[in-house]
Design brief:
Residues 1-21 are annotated as: Disordered. Keywords: FAD, Flavoprotein, Oxidoreductase. Its cofactor is FAD. This is FAD/FMN-containing dehydrogenase. The chain has 482 residues and is of the alpha+beta class. It has four domains: 6-115 and 463-470, Uridine Diphospho-n-acetylenolpyruvylglucosamine Reductase, domain 2 (2-Layer Sandwich); 119-237, Uridine Diphospho-n-acetylenolpyruvylglucosamine Reductase, domain 3, CATH 3.30.465.10; 241-353, Alpha-Beta Plaits; 360-441, Alpha-Beta Plaits. Helices cover 32% and strands 20% of the residues. It contains 16 helices and 18 strands. The strands form four sheets. It has a seven-stranded antiparallel beta sheet, sandwiched between helices. The longest helix has 15 residues, at 252-266. The two termini are 34 Å apart. Bound molecules: flavin-adenine dinucleotide.
Length: 482
């Protein structure tokens, strides 16, 4: 009788490989020090606080070691050693993630991309920027702007998050409505596989139909398939004419109508369309210490950015469009920023989420739903939360042009309630709508058990098959995603 092969065994096929080290840690660290140098392998108190947890502040844990490689070659050598020892490795970027994806367990080795940073090349003819993975998003944006271009990726954590982390999470952010997610900004990618092999596809071509487009397997894979070391990012002509407005609306349907009205008039020049329900807006105004520019309270607010090329009359055309909408009864009120400082003040209300971990015990959701269903979902969700946990404080906002709704429930307002119960309660409401439990932050460790709400068994099996093919020992970021 022959032994069943791996492919015959259904259980083995669907189980995610998860490594348990087969070599003593001391032996692995010795090999790592020999390969990378002593200063690149930190242990115990040498590991700074930053490596212990991400922006969720979830379960801070000191990993067994922190690697600080400076080059792709060093990442490759480190992974080859860990692969041979079946040693779990957790890639770490700027640690601004909101899904617990970069948090290492006590027996894991964390691998920081912090020292593998810097812009390598700006190619004006190709309109591309080649950067190392540890470069902060802001540094990449500034390099693009200095050459008259624009990197069409922007989010509140820009000063700390890294390009590698942005790509590993396929970050969304404020400009998706205009230019797509992080995935859409990538032309080439260099990745180190679990066994140390380097997959260097740093092409600058827009068109390249030579078989599978492998980069897309790694973008959004949350460090479970490979370590991103370099990327070629697509640049866009700089949209110098930015105009920002805050508008007050009757209800969600009015917001969708306004979005369509502005899209008809300005096409792709609508750069942001951020909806804030009053709970969020009022809290944002309070947190920023600002005064609401409106005299009265309103049922809904939208922060809108017109981002075009034509500096001459773009502001006037945008203002005229809002005046027309006001006269047509399509909105209740509007204020238009008259200066960069005004625009920043309006954006500060929307970006008050950076303060949430300091002011709240945040239970964060970043779900997605068809745009037309978001308003009804918010009403139902709020009513259900109020019925289940009277007195809860919940804040709704979203990039609705991208079908993305955010909700933060303040755990302080429901003392004694386990966060998990709140996650399960809200995610279950998505199931009948076939919504996504993560629009942009990823699954990490926090949403693992809820992934089947959004993915079919066949989809999950295909993901596990890819994981098994690229990381057969399961050393990369075990316990995340699956
Ligand atoms: C104030 C604030 C605002 C935010 N706004 C947004 C927003 O609008 N849209 C949005 O999408 N997100 C947002 N986020 C979440 C977060 O900033 C993004 O998820 C960001 O892309 C994470 O980048 P990072 O470098 O901090 O990654 P980390 O948090 O360090 O890691 C995130 C995941 O990527 C993996 N990873 C990191 N680097 C690499 C690499 N080089 N190779 C392979 N895997 C890697 C990690 O293992 C982990 O699974 C926000 C966060 C904050 C704090």
């Amino acid at each position: 009788m022959t032994e069943p092969s791996i492919t015959d065994d259904k259980t083995t096929q669907t189980a995610t490989p998860t490594a348990t080290a087969t070599a003593p840690l001391a032996t692995t660290l010795e090999a790592l020090r020999a390969a990378l140098g002593v200063d690149a392998v930190r242990v115990g108190e040498q590991i700074g606080e930053r490596a212990l947890t991400d922006w969720t502040r979830h379960e801070p844990t000191r990993p067994a070691a922190l690697l600080m490689p400076r080059t792709t070659d060093e990442v490759s050598r480190a992974l080859a050693i860990c692969h041979a020892a079946h040693q779990p490795v957790v890639p770490q970027g700027g640690m601004t993630g909101l899904a617990g994806g970069a948090i290492a367990r006590a027996n894991d080795i964390a691998l920081s991309l912090e020292r593998l940073s810097g812009v390598e090349e700006l190619d004006a003819a190709s309109a591309t920027l080649t950067v190392r993975a540890g470069t902060t998003l802001q540094a990449a944006q500034e390099a693009a702007e200095a050459a008259g271009f624009e990197l069409a990726l922007d989010l509140g954590a820009r000063g700390s998050c890294q390009i590698g982390g942005n790509l590993a999470t396929n970050a969304g952010g404020n400009r998706v409505i205009q230019s797509g997610t992080a995935r859409d900004q990538v032309l080439g990618l260099e990745v180190v596989l679990a066994n140390g092999d380097v997959l260097s596809s740093l092409g600058k071509m827009v068109k390249n139909n030579t078989g599978y487009d492998l980069k897309h397997w790694f973008i959004g894979s949350e460090g479970t398939l490979g370590v991103i070391t370099r990327a070629v990012l697509r640049l866009h002509p700089r949209r110098a004419a930015r105009h920002t407005a805050l508008v007050a609306l009757d209800d969600y349907d009015a917001a969708v109508s306004l979005l369509r009205r502005l899209a008809t008039r300005f096409g792709n020049d609508i750069g942001a369309f951020e909806i804030m329900w009053p709970d969020f807006y009022d809290f944002g105004v309070k947190l920023t210490g600002a005064r609401s520019p409106f005299d009265a309270a309103h049922p809904l607010y939208a922060l809108i950015e017109h981002a075009g090329f034509d500096a001459d009359d773009a502001g006037e055309r945008f203002a005229q469009a809002l005046t027309d909408a006001l006269q047509a009864g399509a909105l209740r009120d509007a204020v238009i920023a008259q200066s960069v400082a005004d625009a920043r003040a309006l954006w500060a209300i929307r970006e008050c989420t950076a303060e949430f971990p300091l002011k709240l015990d945040p239970i964060n959701f970043d779900v997605s739903l068809p745009i037309g269903e978001i308003g009804t979902f918010v009403d139902r969700c709020r009513a259900a939360l109020d019925q289940r946990w009277p007195g809860n404080r919940s804040y709704f906002f979203g990039h609705i042009g991208d079908s993305n709704l955010h909700l933060t429930v303040d755990g302080h307002s429901i003392p004694g309630v386990d966060h998990h119960a709140v996650y399960a309660f809200v995610y279950e409401m998505l199931r009948p709508l076939r919504g996504s439990v993560s629009a942009e932050h990823g699954i990490g460790s926090l949403k693992r058990e809820f992934l089947p709400i959004s993915r079919s068994p066949a989809e999950l099996a295909a993901m596990v098959a890819i994981k098994r093919a690229l990381d057969p020992h399961g050393i990369l970021n075990p316990g995340k995603l699956f």
